[in-house]
Predict the 3D structure of the following.
Amino acid sequence: MSKTVRFTFDGEPQTATGSVSVAAALTGAGHTRLRRTDGDSARGMFCGIGVCQDCLVTIDGRPNRRACMTLLEDGMTVETQAARAPLSGPAPPRLKAERLSPDVLIIGGGAAGLAAGIAARAEGAEVLLLDERKVAGGQYFKQPARADAPAMDPQQADGAALVARARESGVTIVAGAEVWGAFDGPEIMASTATHVYVLTPRALIVATGAYERPIMIPGWTLPGVMTVGAAQTLWRSYGVLPGKRVAIFGNGPLCAQVALELSKGGAEIAVLGETAAPGWTQPRAVAAMALSNRALAAKGAGMLAGLRRRGIAVTWRAKPLAIEQTGAGLTVAYQAGKRHRQVTVDAVCLNFGFQPQNEILRLLGTAMRFDARFGQLRPDRSAVMETSVPGVYAVGDCCGLGGAHAAMVEGRIAGRAAAGGSGPTDKESAELSGHRRFQDALWQVYAADEPPGIEHATPETLICRCEEVTCAKLDDALKAGGSDIGAIKRATRIGMGRCQGRYCAPVLAAYLAGKQGRPLEDLSFFAPQVPIKPVDIATVAATEALLETPPADG
Amino acid sequence: MAEAIDLLIVGGGITGQSAALTAAGAGARVAIVDMAQNVGSHANAGSLHVQMQSRFLRLNPHLAENVESSLPLYLAAVAEWDVLDEALGGVELTREGGLMLAEGADQMAFLREKAEREAKKGLAVDILERPELERIAPYLGPNIVGAEICRDEGKVNPLIANRKMNARLSALGVRHIADRIIGIEAGDGKPAAIGQARHKAAHILIAAAWGTEALTRSLGLRLPTPPEPLHMNITEAGEYAIKHLVQHAERSITLKQFRSGQVVIGGGWPARQNGVESTPRVRGDSLLGNVALAAAIAPGIAGLRVLRTWAGVNTPVDGKATIGPVRPGARVSLSLPGDAGYTLGPIVGRSAAEQILGLPSQIDPTPFAPNRWYD
Ligand SMILES: Cc1cc2nc3c(=O)[nH]c(=O)nc-3n(C[C@H](O)[C@H](O)[C@H](O)COP(=O)(O)OP(=O)(O)OC[C@H]3O[C@@H](n4cnc5c(N)ncnc54)[C@H](O)[C@@H]3O)c2cc1C
Ligand SMILES: Cc1cc2nc3c(=O)[nH]c(=O)nc-3n(C[C@H](O)[C@H](O)[C@H](O)COP(=O)(O)OP(=O)(O)OC[C@H]3O[C@@H](n4cnc5c(N)ncnc54)[C@H](O)[C@@H]3O)c2cc1C
Ligand code: FES
């Protein structure tokens, strides 16, 4: 039996059912406005995975808590977060400090990290796995927050089995553990709600996955506009729909999959807009996809058939142009082929590709190369997934999009190698190249005419959602002679906000490179700096107790 | 052929820019040549220091006399910032004063003696006991027993100041040349700065901070300018409550809040650097130590999160500015603030430019002449 949880939001009593995040509970109760910005706009849950920092609320008097990453507890007092929290909150809880040196440390408990953990354990290594989410499983296997909830479908059941296998094999999984610091050594700093850690492993496997790339159009920051993955997490992990009537726009198979899932959950899919042209216009790529992985290709075809059965037509060559809050809801103006259309919904979901979470790798100084096709940096890796920094391995989507199946094979190879075992078997190499061929063909099918850049953005479009910097302000800074990305940042504050440039940096880097006719490279992006995610001052203070030598107080 | 240059400034940080502002404002044709590497002015925290920094005194007891004798220059420097704030159209300057905190009787005694010495040099300083301090700084922790307040101190937002300074210099027609200068030719004719190209001018002003040492060796000076890689932290925005620049009588810390609500924590914790021209990197122990110290003295900030850290290069030299021609009558001059370079940069740059152009000077530059560096 799911129990009822009581809490208040801005003083009003609320209830939620079962184990849910604060963001899911509020969404379920019809509250999407969670914080005010400095410019006095309302913001709400956007990414759903702890990246965007727009879901901040004050919980039991403590400001700046992420609603999407905090599990609701009975009796919680939740309040809208003011733009600037008072400096008089309650004293933070006491945190226990621990220094650990596991044989293998894995950051990220998705497909890649779990597979790596199992493989490293099989070689006898002592393995510690950290994941910032409350439940391991990652994006593909998105697990329900309630341990006893039945799996929704085979994908979730496979995930549950994988997590169970990792635990049984003896991988120590610490959930709710966010890695915020990475220094040479490697020396890793992490924290949970109760503990802080300094970790100096013999080998490190980074398996931090990806986050979603939005499209920057007027209104993309409105409450109720979220990433497709955020909507998927609401539904798959917490059983809450983003709204009754939903519009989904994006590029790639995730949009169709989530449309189907939400529809099965009872939502009305008002539009499912795909940037690419329909698959039947590219028979060659479709054939290549089917050849490289029959099962996955069949799964995709089944998904489209499922959509048709539910009366959901894909609008191909679709592109959202602007979103506006109207009396009736969120009104999206969009392009469908050459026609202009409009739709009004409760929630708008966007996914225009993925961006690898490679901050830890960049901080540790691993050599990176820019992949122009996917518009992302990828680390150089050996056959056993080791980066240019000895003892630091990288697997899965944090190395650039590869999909969950490739992530698992990479994880297995790296886990074994990091524990001192042998290199990839022929079977693994063959599997991996099969998965890569599939991904390659998949993204040819979904090739969009233009990447979601800001070349055509209107002047009022926000490029930096945190610091509320418009395209017009960016162009002014460019005209004033700003050249490198650091200068633009200092001149406009683009990238200085709470998401630490995760959304603006990739588009800005591409925009600058395009204007200057330069190729993109590691230096085109903001210089990586700690903390990897905003970190509580109280967490830092508690971690200081772990310093082995007294502070280097000049 | 490019237009002739009256004044070529090597180094485009706050010092070089301030010199350019003065010279271009007086009608000179000015160019700045810069290699855009380890620009202290882009890394600094915008504290306007006046009172003697306990950190500098502790690290360099032998230079205490230099610092003390420079106090009038610091007063002129903050007055110059008032002028700049006005001229640039607002750089979030506030002059609400700076607190130096004490945690015990011995530290209070140290501050009392320091305040007495500073008052003699014309600083507006007072000693505050706990109750009075609590009224103006309620965010402080219970261990703080009192403080020295220096009412001349304040802060600016360096991001805004730098942006507006760039815009103003462009409007005045100051040229920007990207080049790395490897030597200065100071013969009998026009001097030249040698980089990828030869940059000739009627006069050259070196405002190259850490780069000064290498450029002045061939000019007969032995002027050590070792870079000091330093660490900074910044939090997300909170309600504007920390109005003062906050320091400590014995520990390394500067704590303040920008008008935008972000708390800036620094105070000279070390960063890591491999070689003069490499970009410094943040050290984990500095991050932990610096932020933990801030949380201990100002527990009110514990609800905020650290958003970012960075490392930059400071050029403390000998705790005293260097201003003026390398030799009397020479056409190559120096402008090197010494410690607290962002505070001192504007007055040092202006004064150097005034000497070169023969303009009446705001300050008497004689004590800061480069002659103490003759080889
Ligand atoms: C939002 C989203 C939804 C997706 N949905 C689907 C889908 O439905 N179907 C499909 O086929 N593919 C989907 N994908 C792609 C697929 O999930 C990935 O290919 C696959 O999950 C890759 O596995 P991974 O282990 O590399 O990364 P992930 O599964 O993303 O796992 C990474 C893990 O690392 C953790 N992590 C990241 N940073 C830190 C940190 N600093 N500290 C601690 N932990 C950290 C995260 O919490 C996460 O659990 C999705 C991707 C995203 C981003
Ligand atoms: C983290 C940090 C925080 C600080 N906080 C404060 C503070 O709060 N208050 C304060 O008063 N001071 C502070 N400082 C000190 C202050 O930033 C510097 O002292 C000041 O900015 C120096 O200004 P400058 O113009 O003299 O030199 P810089 O700003 O360092 O500029 C020197 C310039 O010279 C150029 N250059 C050097 N060599 C060459 C060459 N050979 N060819 C071409 N160009 C060259 C460089 O590219 C650079 O642009 C801080 C310093 C750091 C690192
Ligand atoms: S929605 Fe919570 S951080 Fe993005």
User: Anything to note?
Assistant: The longest strand of chain A covers residues 318-326. Chain A is about 30% helix and 25% strand. The CA atoms of residues 261 and 267 of chain A lie 9 Å apart. Chain A has a mean pLDDT of 94.
